[in-house]
Design brief:
The chain has 336 residues and is α/β, with parallel strands linked by helices. The chain has two domains: 204 residues, Periplasmic binding protein-like II (D-Maltodextrin-Binding Protein, domain 2), CATH 3.40.190.10; 97 residues, 3-Layer(aba) Sandwich (D-Maltodextrin-Binding Protein, domain 2), CATH 3.40.190. The chain is 40% helix and 18% strand. The strands form three sheets. It has a five-stranded mixed β-sheet with strand order 2-1-3-10-4, with helices on both faces. It has a three-stranded antiparallel β-sheet with strand order 8-5-9. The protein has a two-stranded parallel sheet with strand order 6-7. Helix 4 links the parallel strand 6 and strand 7. Helix 9 crosses helix 13. The protein is globular, with a radius of gyration of 24 Å.
């Protein structure tokens, strides 16, 4: 009888253990970016030792794209959960592709006074002195439909120049624009950081205009998410954004800049000297310390696209703005 009782207990335990729900695996979150290190989200996986929830409730898969406009197709196909879009690609995603997305957090602003603005540059010996001199020229951008593409078209349209009629645009990946410019394969290049700093140190080039002159201060890149994904996994997404703000504040803290430069160099496989004179300084883009998107700035940028005829109708961004995750993250961190 005793033996039977022991066997019964063992069988009962094994049945209980087998039927007990297994601990949920961390949710993989697929996140897109364009320029490594420049977009701080690209470095998120390099500093998981400071995070509270990474590897417990979620993990991230960071996916690089040539520009923000190709991300629209990936979002539409359900291949991305979160990702960095620009004011231009977000407007196209909503108005043209009909995507249900929400604007969630900051990545960077361009042209904010006291900080870097994306530049279009020509060779020092070029006969191009003004924007009007770009008539008949070939100009490089990273991808059609991106923020720099639309800023370029806006600036040229302000000077009476129209695409295909008065100038030619070609797609050239950011890392190759300087070489194409110096070789004379394009007449003007779009140089974002770190490529502006690298090229200007060598000399032989000069800026012709920047994004602030085209668009004013620009909410250039920001983190968005698929609404269905946010609703289905709200608690896990909140865990991610709590960690996001931890990471964000760590990166922006001057006390950590030396290590941040090392992280950026290692991730991009470039020497630290490529980042030392600009990364996370006034020569870098502006980033809000709490990771907040500037809604008024972003609305102004999108309004310019409508006023210049680049989107079919005015887009009110208020229904798409959801800063609740970063605001809740700030509350949680303040309560520690």
């Amino acid at each position: 009888m005793a033996w039977r009782g022991i066997c019964g207990l063992v069988v009962g335990f094994l049945l209980w253990a087998g039927l007990r729900p297994a601990a949920a695996d961390p949710l993989p979150i697929r996140i897109s970016y364009t320029v490594p290190a420049l977009e701080l989200i690209s470095l998120f996986g390099q500093k998981t030792d400071i995070l509270k929830h990474y590897g417990k409730s979620y993990t991230v898969e960071l996916i690089r794209f040539r520009g923000t406009s190709p991300m629209i197709t990936a979002f539409a196909a359900g291949q991305l959960d979160l990702g960095n879009l620009a004011y231009s690609s977000f407007a196209l995603a909503v108005l043209n592709a009909g995507l249900d997305l929400r604007i969630l957090a900051e990545d960077l602003k361009s042209g904010v006074p006291g900080h870097f603005a994306d530049k279009w540059a020509v060779r020092e010996d070029s006969d191009i002195k003004t924007v009007a001199d770009l008539r008949g020229k070939t100009i490089g951008i990273n991808a059609f439909g991106t923020a720099v593409d639309l800023a370029l078209r806006v600036m040229l349209k302000k000077h009476g120049l129209l695409d295909k009629r008065d100038y030619r645009i070609v797609e050239v990946a950011f890392p190759h624009q300087e070489a194409m410019l110096r070789q004379g394969k394009i007449d003007a290049a779009c140089l974002v950081q770190p490529f502006w700093s690298i090229a200007s140190r060598k000399g032989g080039i000069r800026p012709i205009f920047d994004v602030a002159q085209a668009m004013g201060p620009t909410q250039l890149v920001f983190l968005v998410g698929r609404t269905a994904f946010l609703q289905q996994h709200r608690e896990v997404v909140q865990d991610f954004f709590t960690d996001f703000l931890i990471f964000w504040r760590w990166m922006l803290d001057p006390a950590h800049r030396e290590e941040a430069v090392r992280l950026a160099a290692a991730f991009t496989k470039r020497p630290e000297a490529a980042f030392a004179d600009w990364f996370l300084t006034a020569e870098d883009y502006y980033r809000d310390p709490d990771g907040l998107v500037d809604a008024a700035m972003l609305q102004g940028n999108v309004d310019v696209l409508y006023e210049m005829g680049f989107i079919p109708r005015r887009l009110d961004l208020r229904p798409y703005l959801d800063l609740s995750f970063v605001r809740e993250a700030k509350k949680r961190l303040a309560g520690q």
